[in-house]
Specification:
alpha/beta, Rossmann fold, 2 domains, 11 helices, binds magnesium ion, HAD_sf
Length: about 230
């Protein structure tokens, strides 16, 4: 499986795509409001109102994805809080099955995440999936969030790729829009990023439910043999 030059590169998002977003929802929407209320001596309602105002202000920026930013903003060590609850991090359905299939069939795999370097590091170590990927990059390294074309320009500069020969899977529509603006054509969203929330009904991109559904889009003939 060493010669993989003819296979397209598969670029994955991490949270909400490979990993269940229920963990992040728990950290940011349940646990942080409790910790913030304890620290700042306010009610949970006040805490949630304050935090949601911060969330609105910083959503889709690099700050949003930065543990350091949030730690200084809310005075709760959010990285330590995430690590404390790392046992709640979980794979989305058929994640390892897809990664194994792609690895065994010689597809180059990259991980491109908006998680900051510290958050990325602990999740990769905890879940043990780093070895699947030829390239692992955080938008913190590039200096732009994936929502913006500058991220993709920066990624290509760091790790050259052919946008026409890439499949990119991400649960955030604004991120997919950024990739589309850059010229990536094969784009997929996720039907249910968080197991704690209802599946999406509509999306502007084809949605994967079980991650192994991607295989049918890569090589329909092979799928008939392997998964018939
Ligand atoms: Mg995501």
């Amino acid at each position: 499986m060493s010669n993989c030059s003819e296979k397209p590169t598969i670029i994955f998002d991490m949270d909400g795509t490979l990993l269940d977003l229920a963990y992040d929802d728990f950290i940011w929407n349940d646990l942080l409001p409790i910790r913030y209320a304890e620290l700042h001596n306010c009610s949970i309602e006040q805490s949630k109102a304050t935090l949601y105002a911060f969330y609105q202000e910083h959503n889709h920026t690099l700050n949003w994805y930065s543990s350091r930013f949030w730690t200084s903003k809310v005075e709760v060590d959010v990285l330590a809080m995430q690590i404390e609850h790392k046992n709640k991090v979980a794979f989305r359905p058929n994640c390892l099955e897809l990664l194994d299939y792609l690895k065994n069939h010689g597809y180059p795999m990259w991980l491109a995440t908006n998680a900051d370097c510290a958050g990325l590091k602990f999740k990769l170590e905890h879940m043990g999936i780093a070895d699947y990927f030829d390239v692992i990059v955080s938008s913190e390294q590039i200096g732009h969030a994936k929502e913006f074309i500058e991220f993709w320009q920066g990624l290509n500069k760091l790790h050259p790729f052919n946008a026409k020969h890439v499949y990119f899977i991400d649960d955030t529509e604004k991120v997919l829009n950024g990739a589309k603006n850059y010229g990536i054509e094969h784009l997929f969203s996720i039907k249910q990023p968080s197991s704690a929330k209802a599946p999406r009904v509509t999306c502007n991109y084809p949605m994967l439910d079980q991650l192994t559904e991607l295989i049918a889009h890569l090589n329909p003939a092979e799928v008939e043999q392997k998964y018939a």
